[in-house]
Write a structure and sequence with these properties.
CATH topology of the largest domain: Rna Polymerase Sigma Factor, Chain: A
Strand content: under 5%
Number of domains: 2
Distance between the termini: 43 Å
Structural class: mainly alpha
Number of helices: 9
Number of strands: 0
Shape: elongated
CATH architecture of the largest domain: Orthogonal Bundle
């Protein structure tokens, strides 16, 4: 079944097609959810909520861009909407002048070390940092999804970058557990 046929079958409420769509995409969408959540239960809840939203809105997919890109956007919007409902982000319209980040140290770090530092950010800053720096949403889009101003998104991103830079400058070292084989 082609992607177009699969989408149409899901729109027509074909349960096998819905299950196939889920099976084909659950792994990478779950990994996306884990970038925003600290635990697997919350990530699984977001994944479930995202698929419900995806199924309900399949008819709006216009095939102008990639289907995976559309699902990614729906999922991030679901995650951020959940955060907006639970917590209000601190509002600050601070000046946004920042020094460039030294990427030499970052390039020498592996994914686990970088994610460790990102996980240490306060929740609101982490969500905005991941949405902008990793998932590529604009500050305007993030602001709309979280119900904050574009300036607040920029400010929180600025503070997140500053905190990450400070952590890097302090040369936080992550000791990886020794595995016994």
């Amino acid at each position: 079944m082609t992607e177009k046929e699969l989408i149409q079958a899901c729109i027509n409420k074909n349960q096998r097609a819905c299950k196939e769509l889920y099976e084909q995409n659950k792994s990478w969408l779950y990994a996306l959810c884990l970038r925003y959540h600290k635990n697997k239960v919350d990530a699984q809840d977001s994944l479930q909520e995202s698929f419900i939203t995806i199924y309900r809105n399949l008819h709006t997919f216009s095939a102008q861009g990639s289907f995976k890109g559309w699902m990614r956007k729906v999922t991030v919007r679901c995650i951020l909407a959940g955060f907006r409902k639970k917590n209000k982000l601190p509002v600050s319209e601070a000046a946004l002048n920042s020094e460039p980040t030294d990427f030499k140290l970052i390039q020498s770090m592996d994914k686990d070390e970088i994610m460790f530092l990102i996980e240490r950010l306060p929740a609101g800053r982490k969500h905005i940092f991941v949405a902008h720096a990793i998932d590529g949403f604009t500050h305007k889009e993030i602001g709309e999804m979280l119900g904050v101003t574009e300036g607040t998104s920029k400010s929180q991103f600025f503070h997140a970058r500053r905190e990450l830079r400070e952590a890097l400058e302090k040369e936080i070292v992550i000791v990886k557990p020794h595995t016994h084989e």
